[in-house]
Automatic annotation (TrEMBL):
Occurrences of domain NADP-dependent oxidoreductase (ranges): 15-308
Domain of life assignment: Bacteria
Protein name per its UniProtKB record: Aldo/keto reductase
UniProt GO cellular component terms: cytosol
Pfam family of the protein (one): Aldo_ket_red
Enzyme Commission number, as recorded: 1.1.1.-
Annotated keywords: Oxidoreductase
Organism of provenance: Pseudomonas yamanorum
Annotated GO MF terms: oxidoreductase activity
C-alpha cells in the first residue's frame, strides 16, 4: 500500500480509501450489504494496508455508521485507522434534520459518534455546500467541533470552486481550522473538476480524494448490475453517448493489457497527477484487489489517448445540476485500438 499526507496536514492516509456506501441495510437500497456481508470486505481492505475509511450519516439512514462501527471494533484498533463521516443529508425527515446549520451539525456529530461507538472521528466532512446557510455559521460550528475534540480535522465534498473559496475565506477571516481534504467525483467519463477545483485545491493545500472512479459501474462494462438498474443517479450522470464511448475505450485498453476494465479505469484515476486518494466501494475482495493493482498500473501515451479521446466538456455533475447534460462527440481513434476492435 502507498501512503500520503493529506493536504497540508500531518495526517497520513492510504492512497486507497474504503468507501462504505454499500454497507448498512438493504432496507435502504436493494444493493446494500448487511453487516455479515460487509465484514470480509472491510477486513480484507485493512489487511492490505488501508487505514482510511469513508462514511456518511446518510448511508442507510444511519445504519451504515452502526454496521461499519461495529465491524471496525472487531477487526481494527481505533488509533490505527482514519475514520471520516459526512454531514448534510441527514437520516430522517424534518425541517432541521438536514443541511449545514449549526443546530444540525451539532446534532449530527453527536449522533454519528453514538452510532459509530467512537469518541471522535478523524475527519468530519460537509457532504455538499449548503446554499441556504451562512458559511460563517457552518464553519464556526465545524471549528467548535474540532476544538471540542469530537473531530480531529474537517473536510468538504462536491461543491463549486467558488463555494470552496468562500469557505476558505471565512476560515481565514476568523482564524478557524480549514478543511484538509476535498472529496470529488472524477473518472474517465467525468473530468470537469480538472478545470478549476483540482488546481485550486493544489494551490490552497487541500488533499484531493476521488469517488466513483468507475463512473458508478459504467466503466466496468457491467451496466446491468442491481445498483445501476435501481439507482436513477447513474442514468442522470452517465447516459450520454460520450460516456458509453469512453466505456468502450476502457474495454479496448483492458483487452490489450489482458486485465479487467475496472483496473484500467482505476489506474487512470489513481495515477492522475491531481489525485491523492481513490475511494474504493468494493462488493467483493476481488474488486478491492483490482483497485490495489491499479496503483501500480502505469498507462502509456497511446493507452491514455484511447481513454481520453472521447471526452469533451459537459455540464458539471453536482447536487444542483442533475439531469443537465450536453451532447458530446468523440475524436478519431488510433490505429492500434481500431485494429484490436476489428480483431475482437
Amino acid at each position: 500500500m502507498q501512503y500520503i499526507r493529506l493536504g497540508n496536514s500531518g495526517l497520513q492516509v492510504s492512497r486507497l480509501c474504503l468507501g462504505t456506501m454499500n454497507m448498512g441495510t438493504p432496507d435502504w437500497k436493494p444493493w446494500i450489504f448487511d453487516e455479515k456481508q460487509s465484514e470480509p470486505i472491510v477486513a480484507h481492505a485493512l489487511d492490505n494496508g488501508v487505514n482510511f475509511i469513508d462514511l456518511a450519516d446518510f448511508y442507510s439512514a444511519g445504519v451504515g455508521e452502526e454496521v461499519v462501527g461495529r465491524i471496525l471494533k472487531r477487526v481494527a484498533r481505533r488509533e490505527d485507522i482514519v475514520v471520516t463521516t459526512k454531514v448534510g443529508y441527514g437520516t430522517r425527515s424534518g425541517i432541521n434534520a438536514s443541511g449545514h446549520s449549526r443546530k444540525h451539525i451539532m446534532d449530527s456529530i453527536d449522533a454519528s459518534l453514538s452510532r459509530l461507538g467512537m469518541d471522535y472521528v478523524d475527519v468530519f466532512m460537509l457532504h455538499y455546500f449548503d446554499v441556504n446557510t451562512p458559511v460563517e455559521e457552518t464553519m464556526g460550528a465545524l471549528n467548535d467541533i474540532v476544538r471540542s475534540g469530537k473531530a480531529r480535522y474537517i473536510g468538504v465534498s462536491t461543491m463549486l470552486t467558488g463555494q470552496l473559496a468562500k469557505i476558505l475565506m471565512a476560515c481565514e477571516r476568523n482564524g478557524w481550522v480549514k478543511p484538509i481534504n476535498m472529496q470529488l467525483q472524477l473518472n474517465c467519463a467525468y473530468r470537469e473538476e480538472e478545470r478549476e477545483m483540482i488546481p485550486f485545491c493544489r494551490d490552497q493545500g487541500l488533499g484531493v480524494s476521488v469517488f466513483s472512479p468507475l463512473a458508478r459501474g459504467l466503466l466496468t462494462g457491467e451496466v446491468q448490475s442491481t445498483r445501476n438498474q435501481t439507482d436513477f443517479f447513474t442514468q442522470q450522470m452517465y447516459s450520454d453517448q460520450a460516456s458509453f464511448d469512453i466505456a468502450h475505450s476502457v474495454q479496448r485498453v483492458a483487452r490489450a493489457r489482458g486485465v479487467s476494465n475496472a483496473q484500467i479505469a482505476q489506474a487512470w484515476v489513481a495515477n492522475h497527477p491531481g489525485v491523492d486518494v481513490m475511494l474504493v466501494g468494493a462488493d467483493t475482495t476481488a474488486q478491492f484487489d483490482s483497485a490495489l493493482a491499479a496503483l501500480d498500473t502505469q498507462l502509456d501515451a497511446e493507452e491514455l489517448h484511447e481513454l481520453e479521446r472521447n471526452y469533451t466538456p459537459c455540464d458539471v455533475i453536482n447536487d444542483y445540476t442533475a439531469g443537465k447534460r450536453i451532447l458530446r462527440s468523440a475524436r478519431p481513434g488510433l490505429d492500434r485500438f481500431n485494429l484490436i476492435e476489428a480483431v475482437a
